[in-house]
Amino acid sequence: MKGDALDPKGLIQDAYRIEGITEAECRVIFLDWALSMGEGDLGPQIAALLERHGVEGHPMTTVLRAGLDGPVTPRRRGGHRARPRG
Predict the structure, then answer these.
(1) What ranges does the record list as Basic residues composition bias (predicted)?
(2) Angle at 58 between CA 39 and CA 18, to 5 degrees
């Protein structure tokens, strides 16, 4: 296993190691990470990742902070399962 319970695939850790990574690339990595974490509030995990890796000025730090401000519960946007029921 590459990562741990907080970052099972090691995606966030790898993003901080990539020299010259852009914010757009970090957003893609963050989305992959969020979708792999399953349903639920990811705020505590994002905060822990920031505490672990949060290097000032790094694009992934910017993306993680934005993740704390916005919706952090990934869910499907299309298809019959995404439609409200009732």
Answers:
(1) 74-86
(2) 85
Instruction: State how far the alpha carbon of 2 is from the alpha carbons of 21, 29, 45, in Å.
Output: 21, 16, 17
CA pair distance 67, 82, nearest whole angstrom: 21
| Under 8 Å between Cβ of 34 and 72 | yes
Spatial distance between the Cα atoms of 20 and 71, rounded to a whole number of angstroms: 27
Global pTM value: 0.77
Which pLDDT tens digits describe the chain residue by residue (86 residues)? 577 899 999 999 999 999 999 999 999 999 999 999 988 889 999 999 999 998 999 999 999 999 998 764 556 566 666 667 76
Provide Rg for the chain, Cα atoms.
14
Task: Tell me how far apart the 2 most distant CA atoms of the chain are, in Å.
Answer: 49
What one-letter code names the amino acid at 33?
W
